[in-house]
Amino acid sequence: MEDRAQVFNKELENYLQILNIPSKLKKSMLYSVKAGGKRVRPILVIASYEVFQKNIKKTISTASALELIHTYSLIHDDLPAMDDDDYRRGKLTNHKVFDEATAILAGDALLTYAFEIIAKDNNLTDIEKVYIIQKLSEASGPKGMVAGQILDIEAETKSVSLDELITIHSKKTGALINFSVHIGAYLGGASEEQLNYLDEFSSNLGLLFQVQDDILDIIGDEEKLGKPIGSDEEKEKSTYPSLLGLKGAKQYRDDYAEKAQKALEKAGIQGSYLNHIIDYIAHRDH
């Protein structure tokens, strides 16, 4: 994961370096993009494509656009009006380094620039561009990630059911992960049946990612996480551990991992990098 992230980072940063835009805006955008991260979503795009094809050049713009949208969501998530966080990945959050107005505008810029990158990619056909933009808009917009974010805010300081929690995370975290896998496989030429099973795989992978996040917020290492632990409890958020206990949350994590593996088997995909990503996400420590 780390090796692939390093290779991808150079491609991603180049999309921003070439921009001729106001200096402060560019610095703010680059600050959050270069702040690190696991790059799980773009790596999933590439890994899903590699199941079917080997030349990953066709995936780079889409993977980069996706990470820009993910980065914008983190900048906005950290704002005082949202989660009000001072640190992200061990560094001061964007609005703490620059200011709130610049952070908001940097997020806006990353979001809109993402679609320009896809539209200008000569490696994609017009049909592919329209499909990608449609799917990415759905995943990141009012039916996907943004819906999950507002449901998450509304759930603070009140108890929600496990089904409601799953709905929140299926949108807030899962929608972009689902897009990652689906679009990589689509560009690689997966069949309709395979895409359906891969959607099942990614749905469980997204929930797996979130339940491990919740677990790490209790027992994680602050230095490795790059942020304080216990923030979910402090904000009175409903989480898997708060609803199920730590042991129950770990059981759900293992169940999601097993379901994800079985979905790959049904898709006829075994021994691929996707199998390793399940293990990585289930046992990550940051």
CATH architecture identity? Orthogonal Bundle
Helical stretch count?
15
User: What is the tally of beta strands?
Assistant: 2
Q: In CATH, what is the class?
A: Mainly Alpha
The largest sheet is: 2 strands, antiparallel
Strand content: under 5%
Q: Return the structural class.
A: mainly alpha
Named CATH topology:
Farnesyl Diphosphate Synthase
Radius of gyration: 18 Å
Shape: globular
- Percent helix among the residues? over 70%
| Mean of all residue-level pLDDT scores | 92
Query: What pattern of helices and strands is seen along the backbone?
Result: HHHHEEHHHHHHHHHHH
Model description:
- There is one protein chain.
- This protein has 286 residues and is mostly helical.
- The protein has a single domain, classed as Farnesyl Diphosphate Synthase, CATH 1.10.600.10.
- Helix content is 72%, strand content 1%.
- It has helices spanning 2-17, 23-33, 40-50, 60-77, 94-97, 100-119, 126-140, 145-155, 162-172, 174-188, 192-219, 222-225, 231-234, 240-266, 273-283; strands at residues 87-88, 91-92.
- It has a two-stranded antiparallel ribbon with strand order 1-2.
- The longest helix has 28 residues, at 192-219.
Annotation keywords:
15 helices, mainly alpha, Farnesyl Diphosphate Synthase, two-stranded antiparallel sheet, 286 residues
Please write out the topology.
Blueprint: H1 2-17, H2 23-33, H3 40-50, H4 60-77, E1 87-88, E2 91-92, H5 94-97, H6 100-119, H7 126-140, H8 145-155, H9 162-172, H10 174-188, H11 192-219, H12 222-225, H13 231-234, H14 240-266, H15 273-283
Antiparallel strand pairs: 1-2
Helix pairs in contact: 1-2, 1-4, 2-6, 3-4, 3-10, 4-6, 7-10, 8-9, 10-11, 11-14, 11-15, 14-15
